Structure formats: C-alpha cells, structure tokens
Amino acid sequence: MTDRHSGETLVETGRLVAEGVGHSVRLQAQDRLFGLGDKAFRLDRRGHAVTLWNTDAFKYQRGTDPLYKSVPFVLKQGAETNVGLFYDNTFRSRFDLGAWMDDWLHYESAGGDLDLYILHAPTALGVVESYARLTGRTPMLPKWALGYHQCRYSYMDEADIRGVAEGFRSREIPCDALYFDIHYMDGYRVFTWDPKAFPDPKALTDDLKDLGVRTVVIVDPGVKVDPDYFAYQEGTTRRFFCENPDGTDFTDTVWPGDVHWPDFSKIEARMWWGETHQRYLDAGVTGFWNDMNEPAILGGRDFPDEVRFAFEDRGTGPTDHREAHNVYGLLMAKATHEGLRTIRPDERPFLLTRACFAGSQRYAAAWTGDNVSSWEHLLLSLQICQSLSLSGLGFCGPDIGGF
Question: How far apart (Å, rounded) are the C-alpha atoms in residues 244 and 254?
Fold first, then answer.
C-alpha cells in the first residue's frame, strides 16, 4: 500500500493463510511494534508471538499469554513511516511479530473476514489518534474517578467498610472510592445485598458520601440458577441467556454455583441488564466494576464453541462462542453504560472492566487484572498500562500492591 499523496510505500503485504484468514506485513530492521492491549512483555513486541483470546489469567507472570483483553491493533513505528494496523475480527487470533521470520509480521484468525484498517500519520501519536477516532474515545468521567481508589478482596461486612473509610479520614490519607467485592451480595446473586452483613446499604453509602467516599460494587455476569431469584426468573422468562444449540440455557459454575450468562448481543437483554442497575443507584452506589466477563468459568474453562449468541445488531443471524467470546466484556460494558446513561442522563457513569475488545474505551475504564505483589509486577503494571493507552484504553490502572 502506498500513500496516494507522496507515493511512499506504507506497508508491503504478503499472502493469506490456507485456513481461516491471514495477512502478512514486511518489517524493516528499524521497525518497532507496539499495542495489542495487555500483553505481559516489553513495550516493543517485536520478536514475540501472541494470542488474542480474553482469559482469566489469575496471578499471571511476565510472558503469560493470553491475558484479559484483545485489541487487534498494532502500531508499527519505523525510522520514517508510522503505520497502524487494525484487524477488525473478533475470533481467536494470533500475531507473530517477527518471532518466526524476523522481517515479517504475520496475522491469522480462526474465522471471520479479513477486515483491515491501515492508519497512517507523520507521527506515532498521530496514528494512535486516528485509531481513537476510528474506534471511539473515553467519555468524560466523574471528577472523583481521578482520585485514589481503595479495593481489596474482600470487605466482609458493613463494619469492615466503615472502619476502612474512617481510618483513611482519621489519618488524613486521601481516598475517593471504596470497592465492594463479591461478599456484599446475598449468596453471590448479582443485584442483591447480603441482608445480615449489609442490612441497610443506602444508609451506608450515604454515610460514606458524607466522608467524601464514593462506592463501587463488583457486578459479575453469571446469574445464579435459582427459581426464587428475580434476575433468574426474568432472564429465563424473557430468554435473555446464552443458549445451547438445542435452545436450552447454557449452564456452568461461577461463585454462586450453577449460573446462566446473559447474551449481551441481544438488544433487549442489554437494556434489561442496564436498567436493572437502578437497584444499585437506589442504594446510593456511584460506580460499577465488571469482573469475570472474559467470560470466565471456575476452573479456567471456556464456553463450548457451540454456545449460541444472537448478534442482533449485525442483522445477519446468530453466531457461536468462537466469534462472540472476545467481545463479551465489551457488550457487557455497553449494556451497563447505556443503562446508566438512560437512568441518570445528567450524571457521568464510572465503569471499570476487566475484559475488553477494541472500542471498549467508549464505555469503561480498565484495570490490569489479578496481578501479584512483586517488584516485577510493579514494573509490569506500568508497562501494561502504557500498552493499554497505546491501544485506545487511556484510562487504566493496576492493583498497585498486587491482587
């Protein structure tokens, strides 16, 4: 491909692969390669081969791959030419960044189309800006989101939370938000509160707000299989869950036990999920934290390939998990963000997500997942955040002291 104005060769491409889709780009000796989201390598990816498949990578280490996010965007920075390559394909993909053949970048995907955007600008920053214009920018977040956020696994009851907030204030240590992990829920049922540990969540959040502390609750996608649980009743009655090929709801295990997962590629399912956050807003919650949305199953398993997704926005009929997996987190964030904007149109939502695809920055900030307490991870967290920023996710952060 050449620049139509200068005639300069931007990328020299190679042949496609025999199975799936593929593409190759010749590399020059000076080229450096950046991007691809949360990869646990040095910032310059050249010489590595990586996979894009959102994965619950608990206690990952340097070199662990894949991780939580899939962003098929590569910034190729050369001595004179800066080019961005965005492969808009959600299937499991692999990038060989000069590991096999030093002078070629190879891309291949297990399915879908070769839908490639080539972005060119005089500077590397210009390429990243072009990518942001293409895939979307992060909306303005609430001012408190810029402060210090205190989170741990886990605060077990109201007294625990109050003690932490009061401890920060008595020591005059800045703190703008406290996070509630999975133990605030009634039996890990999303959209509920444990009636013994958190008997009056509105009074608690009001008191915290008086201290200048906002509240962020974890929201996992798995809905407990329980006939007496409102979210299960509504989701099954309205057929909002991911389905097996025979039309039954797909079931597997997360924190609550057996769960179903919402099919966020169904438009009405997204609306239902987003609007159900009214329950949290009524309780005074000010922010939301999407976890386990790779989607993750206990034991590290994936959905079976044949699990069905509607993909209604596309209008071409349903697809299966192979195509839907990498965008599950994005669609969950979209459902939440749009629901919050509908319920409280005059307030800026704050949403944090673990799993991402290209464009997730339109709906949510991101963090670097379940890291560990080590000097290596302190360095790695900075490198991953820089890489996420180059991949469009400019509002991001780590668990500073490790998970």
Answer: 18
